[in-house]
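Hi everyone, sorry if this is the wrong subforum. Our group has a chain we'd like a structural model of before ordering constructs, and none of us has done structure prediction before. Sequence below.
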Amino acid sequence: MEIVAADTAWVLMSSALVLFMLPRLALFYGGMVRRKNVLSSMMHSFVAMGVITIEWIVVGYSLAFGEGNWFVGGFEHLFLQGIDLYSTTGTIPTYAFIAFQGMFAVITPALISGALVGRIKFKSYIAFIALWGLIVYAPVCHWVWGGGFLTGEALDFAGGTVVHITSGISALAILVYLGKRKGYGVDAIKPHNVTLTLLGAGLLWFGWFGFNAGSALAADEIAALAFMTTFIAPAAAGLAWMAVEWIHTGKPTALGLATGIVVGLVSITPGAGFVTPMAAIVIGFIAGIVCYKAVMLKGKLGYDDSLDVFGVHGVGGITGALLTGVFASIGATGLLLGNSHQLLLQLEGIVITIIYATVCTIIIGFVLEKTIGLKVSESEENIGLDKTQHGETAYNI
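Answer:
Right subforum, don't worry. Here is the predicted structure as tokens:
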């Protein structure tokens, strides 16, 4: 197929926007942690840019988008074999497609890091994301987008299942080995700089236009639709979260609004190019309430997901995927247009992904725990990972 310059330019720009989400994620997470773990938290996002990028080029892209079988791609594109300057994917150069999809592969394991703050050895984190990228991300990506058994079945425009459900569920699963932070549930563990988190949330919203609208892989009406729904849903979710929190606690917090905005971004991701702008308002509003309730349950259930990766990305991704099956009306039909089967397909994709990601993450965690270990010592946790893992401090004052 002939290359279209406008499509190529849009996908290249979108790729840059998605990569820029990594330092924005670092800001978002970094502001929520304690001062002694700021650099450690930010390093988790930045090191993924190195580790997963190389892994994606060497083998990840081939496993995700190689011909392979129903479960995983083949090895025909190891080291990008068989792809050259003139290879095309749709109306864009294949190199542009590989780069764009590579940005998704990079940010997904970095999302998990928010659940691990202050507890995981840096070398173990590197090993974890490298193994997770190959064993969990690449196969699920192949299932949904690369010609696997969910391709053309479960709707996932930009990564509700591939990115957010996998990362959110895996974040919860790895806590089996990391347990709770020292003092969790007893001491007040407060964010050290909410201004950084607010800045990160706003910049993530900006980058998410590339994440969702770029997934059209063309500069066309579907990209414009995805851009619009990505503009609307976070606004609705942020307001819904703020309203529920205001009613529940008596005060609306800046941290709550920032979290609600990210919930809206997560929830609209699977349906960004399949639903109308009005549906995006409803999806964002419902997700804001559901995810707030999910985060509140954390204390009652007793697990220590440091930055609410499961409550935001896991529950937000599940909610968005299900509601896509309800509201889809563009390029597909959902429950409201009489296609109840689509909702069942969405549920099937969600359940299979949850089971697979959970089992694989627990196995990866077990292997690492028995070899190099996962959790830092109690004394290292007390001192903080900035000093014990990196020999640095964020603020030299």
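For your construct planning: The two ends are 59 Å apart (CA to CA). Residues 271 and 324 are 5 Å apart (CA to CA).
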